[in-house]
UniProtKB/TrEMBL annotation:
The active site is at residue 56. GO terms for molecular function: oxidoreductase activity, acting on the CH-OH group of donors, NAD or NADP as acceptor. Residues 31-264 form the NADP-dependent oxidoreductase domain. Keywords: NADP, Oxidoreductase. This is Aldo/keto reductase. The keyword NADP applies. Substrate binds at residue 114. InterPro entries: AKR, AKR5G, Aldo/ket_reductase_CS, NAD(P)_OxRdtase_dom_sf, NADP_OxRdtase_dom. It comes from Flagellimonas ochracea. It comes from the Bacteria. Belongs to the aldo/keto reductase family.
Length: 278
């Protein structure tokens, strides 16, 4: 198990870059005041990792939230993603430039392919390798790539992806995929760690929250970290942003880690990477 210390703790990517293992996701946060305040509140209260994407249509607000915070841009680990319709070599380079402009920055800390698109993703990856070689992005990675998608990409890749961001929660553990990613140096990262809110209905979660005197969200987010999985719960509410990060004064016992693992039933709340049409 990796060392988990505090809100600004990091896991090291295979290229040596330190990535904060806890961050704020801004999916569905409205551009403008809502996302600006969410980002500003998170950074001002110790977060150092912000995850957005071009398709979220809130990159401008994310950039503004960083500017309005008390934290320097260089101290923020900023992530965005190339959308499916922008995949391909030239179009990825253009999409990256457009994201930088909206975010008001001249580099990203991590850029991800949002979804696997077969042969097109190979051209996208070549563009991302170029951006990495040119030091316009500190790390490059993938999102929603299952094992066979990764195995399809690797023979044409000069650089192994540093991160794979996946739907991950107690109902969708995909331990074999985690183990595969770790075996080739890819850091696993969770999206939708709270099961789109469904986590709060589980009796097991209620029992563990009572046992540890923590919230259900804090239990599952701590489980993520103890599994070695970076996590980015999304919220626009200040109190929830602060509560989600209150994870560093307790540790889940190994038998309870196994209990949460045992809830796996391969259930997705988001799209299936093998069957989506966008």
């Amino acid at each position: 198990m990796r060392t988990i210390t505090d809100l600004q703790g990091t896991f090291q990517l295979h290229n040596g870059v330190e990535m904060p293992y806890f961050g704020l996701g801004v999916y569905l946060s409205k551009d403008g005041k809502e996302v600006i305040n969410a980002v500003k509140n998170a950074l001002d209260h110790g977060y150092r990792h912000i995850d957005t994407a071009s398709i979220y249509n809130n990159e401008e607000g994310v950039g503004e939230g960083i500017k309005q915070s008390t934290v320097d841009r260089k101290d923020v680990f900023l992530v965005s993603k190339v959308w499916n319709t922008d995949q391909g070599y030239d179009s990825t380079l253009k999409a990256f430039d457009a994201s930088l402009e909206r975010l008001g920055t001249d580099y990203l800390d991590l850029y991800l392919i949002h979804w696997p698109k077969g042969e097109k993703s190979k051209e996208t990856w070549k563009a991302m390798e170029r951006l990495y070689d040119e030091k316009r992005v500190r790390a490059i990675g993938i999102s929603n790539f299952l094992k066979h998608h990764i195995e399809d990409l690797l023979p044409d890749a000069k650089i192994v992806p540093m991160v794979n961001q996946m739907e991950f929660h107690p109902y969708l553990v995909q331990q074999e995929l985690i183990d595969f990613c770790h075996s080739i140096g890819i850091q696993y990262e969770a999206w939708s760690p709270l099961m789109q809110g469904n986590i709060f209905d589980l009796d097991t979660m209620k029992e563990l929250a009572k046992k540890y005197n923590k919230t259900i969200a804090q239990i599952v987010l701590r489980w993520d970290l103890q599994k070695g999985v970076i996590t980015i719960p999304k919220s626009s509410k200040k109190e929830r942003i602060l509560s989600n990060a209150d994870l560093f004064d307790f540790e889940i016992e190994s038998n309870d880690i196994r209990l949460l693992d045992s809830l796996n039933c391969d259930k997705r709340f988001g799209p299936d990477p093998d069957n989506f049409d966008f």
